[in-house]
Amino acid sequence: MASSIFETYRCALIGKSVSRVWRGYGSALFLELGELAPGPLRDGKSGEPKGEFTLMIEWSWRIETETSILCGTWSEQDEWPDFLKNLVGRTIVDAYLFARLPEISLALTDNLYVSSFMTSTEQPAWVLFDRFRDKWINVENGKVIEESGTK
Known about the structure:
The protein is mostly beta strands. It has two helices and 13 strands, in the order αβββββββαββββββ.
């Protein structure tokens, strides 16, 4: 499944490195992609570093190889740090959408993959932010849509 909106993001991601990985609330997973820069806080001070792109998977994600699932939302949480740390420094070889309702997967060097995989009765819960253009894509009503911070 391809989307012309997604294709723009896909082309920009290929060759970027995973610069930082962090957990949000609950099982939310954030991957900072490309060069890092200080993230602005509401009070104008510098916050945690943000990548050129950020992939946020709110919940139901997994880290896979070609033949197995290494870690995911339902794995023991004390296993997560080692697997997440192992993603840093890897290069994005490809990015693609899969499934009837668009899920996202990043193919990384050494045959590692990070994929969203919604298991609830909601839409896939991922967002890909483009920091330079102040735009992002996500899934709404079964389709990839692009939104902007300057509406």
